[in-house]
Amino acid sequence: MKSKKIFQRIAAVDIGSNAIKFKQFRIRTSKNLFPLELDTFKRIDLRLGQDVFETNRISEESEKRLIQELKNLTNKVRKRKIEWAGICATSATRNAVNGNEVCSKIEEACQTPVNILSGKQEAYYLKGANTRKIENLNRPIYVDVGGGSTEIYMRNSSEEFYESFDLGAVRIMKGKDSIKEWEKLKAFLNVVKENNADALVGIGGNIRRIFKILEIQKYSPLELKEFEEIRKNLSKMPIVDRINKYSLAEDRADVIVPASDIFSYILEHSNINKLFAIDWGICDALAFEYLNENLS
After folding, report:
1. Are residues 73 and 160 in the same domain?
2. Which residues, listed in sequence order, are joined to residue 202 by a DSSP beta bridge?
3. Inside any domain, residue 243
4. How far apart are CA 271 and CA 166, in angstroms?
5. pLDDT per position as a tens digit, 172-229
6. E runs forming strands in 130-273
7. pLDDT tens digit sequence for 67-95
8. Secondary structure of residue 123 in the 3-state scheme
9. Which end of the chain is more exposed for a tag (fewer CB within 10 A), N or C?
10. Domain total in the chain
């Protein structure tokens, strides 16, 4: 029988297309609560997708900064004696012709494995999303809109449906999305519609920011009409006005509209008229998986 591991905190890193995200969690002991409590969050602005979606490579400059930032994070984790759930890389890294090479350099510098997730793996990680603060969810779809890709997960009583699409906010902003990928998404949404999905649970910084702009709690419902109004208003604003009016970071102000357009397309083609936003991502999924594997 596998012995239980005793530890108090877990850390994980997500190398995304728009930013590096680091999360550190405390382990809760109460059975009535979700076992992970966010302790530390750090977002490092490093837009790998900007390189990759234009040149198919992670640039030398981005590579150097990426390795240095990850060295700093892993050193801090080790000094604090925190359990390390791992480092994962997503769309930009898996699309880069030198993605594997860069990850090997990270592993050597940080003495930590780096896992490049497939799109399917990334979509399946949505399965564990913590929706305990949302009441009366019947048949939701989970949608994670990132910089390079969008993942969707849904389950009914007997089946799971999940897929990844090369449609992300940075990719669209750079004009690197394809009609074929939009058609693939539309076909998947037909399945969602056939299974009577009735709510969209949105994941990612862009949808959370929309809720913040509207002063709606993340775990409260946002109606389709209100979402479409703010999406259209943002799309008409110059980026500098989005920054000034809503205190958006520069690397959020430019991608928030293409990200909203993806959510809008999904809502339209799945006949869903209600959406939520939650705090969940690859780091949460990694930590949750690590916890279950080591405490089971």
Report:
1. no
2. 143, 277
3. yes
4. 22
5. 999 999 999 999 999 999 999 999 999 999 999 999 999 999 999 888 999 999 999 9
6. 140-145, 150-155, 160-165, 199-203, 222-223
7. 999 999 999 999 988 999 999 999 999 99
8. helix
9. N
10. 2
